[in-house]
C-alpha cells in the first residue's frame, strides 16, 4: 500500500474514533418507567438505555441483571429491559454499560414491603420547572391526608396526597419522605435539581475543547507517521561519508 494513502487512512480512523467516542459519552443516558425512585415489592420496573443499540443493566451489588436478557427490547432510540417483580434486595444503584465500555448515569431506587411510597422523579428536574411529589397508599388510590418531610423536618400537609413545588430551585434539592396517618411512612428519596445554565459560552467552550483535542491528536499522529516514513525511506539516520572521514 502507498505510504501516503496509509497515513490518510490512519488519520481518518483516528477522527472517526474520537467523534464516535464523544457521541457515545453524550448519548449515554438511563431512565426508568414508572419515572420514580420508590417501588412497592412485586411491582415491575423498566430500564431504558437511550442512544445505544445494546446495553447491560448493572446493579451496584448484584452486578449485571440476569433477568434483563429475557425481556430485552429494542426501541427507536435505544433498548430496554424489564424486571417484572422487584424485591427488597433489588433496592440500590443501577446504571448501564455498553459493549464499548461506556457507562451511563446512575439511578438509585428503593423497594419497600410497607404500604406507603413517595413518588418523586427518577431523573433530575430542571431548575424553574414544576415538580409534584406524591404520597402513594398501597391500600387505596383515593385522596387522603399526607405529611411531607425534607431531611426529616415537616414541610407540608395536604389533603390530596400531593405536594407541588411550582418553580423548583437548587435549594429544593434534598432527601424527601412522606407519611399517612394510620398507614405508615415512606422511605427517603433524593430529589435532584439541575441548575439552568446562565453562561451561553459554557457549551461552545466544551465543543472548542473537543475540536482542539481532535486537531492536536491528528497533528501528533501525522508527525509520527511522517517520522516513520522518513526513517523508512532512509532520509533520516543516514551516515554522512564526509563526516566519517574526519580524524
UniProtKB/TrEMBL annotation:
It comes from the Eukaryota. SUPFAM superfamilies: Immunoglobulin (SSF48726). One of its GO terms (biological process) is immune response. Residues 1-27 form the signal peptide. The chain crosses the membrane at residues 208-231. The keyword Membrane applies. Residues 114-194 form the Ig-like domain. One of its GO terms (molecular function) is transmembrane signaling receptor activity. GO terms for cellular component: external side of plasma membrane. PANTHER family: FC RECEPTOR-LIKE PROTEIN 4 (PTHR11481:SF64), IMMUNOGLOBULIN FC RECEPTOR (PTHR11481). This is Ig-like domain-containing protein.
